[in-house]
Amino acid sequence: VNKLANLVGVTLGPKGRNVVLESKYGPPRIVNDGVTVAKEVELEDPVENIGAKLVRQAAAKTNDLAGDGTTTSVILAQGMITEGVKIVGAGANPVQIARGIEKTAKALVYELQKMSKEVKDSELVDVAAVSAGNDYAIGNIIADAVSKVGRHGVVTLEEGKSSENSLYVVEGMRFDRGYISPYFVTDGERMTVEYNNCKLLLVDKKINSAKDLIAILEDAITSGYPVLIIAEDIEQEALAALVLNRLRGSLQIAAIRAPGFGERRSQYLDDIATLTGGTVIRDEFGVPLHKADKTVLGTAAKVVITKDSTTIIGDGTTQEEVIKRVTQIKNQIEATEHEYEKEKLKERIAKLYGGVAIIQVGAQTETELKEKKLRVEDALNATKAAVEEGIVVGGGCTLVRLASKVDAIKQTLENDEQKGWG
C-alpha cells in the first residue's frame, strides 16, 4: 500500500510533481494524474501487489465517479489502512471498525454537502484551471466550451494537429447507454470504443439472430466502414457472432441498447435517425431487418462509447432535418399539459439541438500531447463535477473542517466503531 501511495502522492496538489512512465510501445509518458500512475504499478511480491491493487481500485472507482481527485483517494486510503492495521493489531473488532467508518463517512458526506455551494459561470475558469495545474489557458477553453453548449451540454476531447488548443461546436448528442460487451473496446487503456466516419444501424426491436444482419455486415467488411448497432436489445447468439467478428479483426463493430423504454425509446431512435440521416427498422412497417441494406444506415462523423454513455457526432449534412425535428418536438411541448412529459420533451431537444463542443488539445511533441490531454481531461471532469455537485474551499481546508466534525460524530458510534476514527 505504502509503495504505491508514496509514488502516487508526489502528484498531489498545486506543487505536485510529474512522474515519467516507461512505455513498451512509443515514447515515455509524463503524467500528473494519480490513477494513471497507479495503473502502472505492479509489485514483484504477490502479497504486496494485493495491497497495491486494493488502493488502485479505490483510485479507479473515484476516477469512474468523479473523473478527478484520484490522488486524494489514494492518500486517504493509505491513511485509513495504516491506522486500521494498527488498531486491529491492538485487538479491536475489524467488523465494528468497518461499520464505524461507513457511518462516519456517510455523516461527513452530509456535512460536505452543507459546505458546498453552487458554482457560478465566472468561477468555472478557476475550477478548470486549478485542476489542470493552474493552467488558465486550459481553464478558459473549458469554460468557453461549457458556455457554448450549456452547463449540461456535451464536451469531448481529441488530439489536435497543431501546437495550440482549439474549440469548435458540431451537431451531436450524448445519452446514458454504454457498450453491451467490453469486447467491442478499441482503446484498452481508456476502455472506450471510438470510430470515425461510422455507420449506424437503428433497430426498434430485439435482434435475435446474426443472420438478419448478414447483408449489412458483409458490406461493412467489404467497404471497410465501422458500424454501430443501436437496438432494443441483442440476444446472446447474435451478440456472440458480432464479438467473434470483432475479435478476429474482420469487422469494426459495436452495439448498444437504445435509450429509453417503450414509446420513448422509439422517439429517441427517431431523433438519432434525424441526426444521422438513417432509417429506423421496425416490424410494423418499412423494410424488415433481414432485407435491410446499407441504404438504411445513418452516418456519424465520430462515435465515442464508454461503459456508461454514448456520444454521436453528426457529419453536418442533416442540419435542416434537425431543425424541423426540433420544431415538431416544440409543438408537442405546447400541446401537452403534463409537466413530466414536457420535461422529457425538453430533454430530447437539448440532446438533439445542444450540439457537442470538441476541444482539440495541441502540443509540440507526442509526449507533451499525452500529458496535456490527461490534464485537460481531469480539468473537464472537475468542471462537470462542480456543475453537478457544487464546489468547496480547496487546498485541504475542507478536509481540515471535516476533521473538526469527527469528534461529534464519534459520540454517536459504539465501542470499537469509534476506533476507526480515534
Automatic annotation (TrEMBL):
InterPro entries according to UniProt: Chaperonin_Cpn60_CS, Cpn60/GroEL, Cpn60/GroEL/TCP-1, GroEL-like_apical_dom_sf, GROEL-like_equatorial_sf, TCP-1-like_intermed_sf
GO annotation (BP), single: protein refolding
The keyword ATP-binding is annotated on this UniProt entry: yes
Keywords of the record: ATP-binding, Chaperone, Coiled coil, Nucleotide-binding
MF terms (GO), sorted A to Z: ATP binding; ATP-dependent protein folding chaperone
UniProt feature coiled coil, ranges: 319-346
Family of this protein: Belongs to the chaperonin (HSP60) family.
Protein name (Swiss-Prot/TrEMBL): RuBisCO large subunit-binding protein subunit beta, chloroplastic
